[in-house]
Structure prediction request, 217 residues.
Amino acid sequence: MRAAIYARVSTDEQHPENQIAELRAWCAEHGHAVVAEYVEQESGAKAERAQFRRMMADAARRRFELLVFWSLDRLSREGVAQTIQHLARLEHYGVKFRAVRQPELDTTAPWGWVIVALMAALADIERQLIRERTRAGLARARALGKRIGRPPLSADTLRIAQAAAEGKSQREIALLAGVSPSTVRRRLAQLRTTSNATSPTPKATSGPHSSERALVR
Prediction:
């Protein structure tokens, strides 16, 4: 059977490699040929995920017959109704699905959709608990006088940024700041990352058929 893998993590600090390895091994063990892999770092609480949309579009085109994911909360944390809607769309497209960590999710059984609804509800509750714990932790840190957010830029980083803005080369900047050229490259990369993270994202100007960058194998 032609299979596709969907793996998701929520943050840059998390890594999907463990999911991918286990999903590939499961497909090999069950004799399924992996024809596509969709991997992303996005919150499962929203449907506007590039790889998720790509996967659903490929499912509609019958690119694969089986979607394999780690567990239901890796596919979606959007709540019961939306999660069931996603799975129903897959079935409408003729695509079966398997959660390798949750073999009880079998919609061919009479109680299958009941279990799906229960799992989706639990995933949504867990997401809300994580959000509340995060808010409580931030509030406690503020009450203790701890700084929230990115630390201020160091003096040498400010010198590097100013010299770069003046058009100096990385070697010249290294001599001025008293650091190595590799440190200059690293600090400039960090400054670009910070600038990109805090700058508003421009609206897309391309047409409805513009391509998406996607990690699909």
Q: What stands out?
A: Strands lie at 2-9, 33-41, 66-69, 96-99. The first strand starts at residue 2 and ends at 9. Residues 112-143 form the longest helix (32 residues).
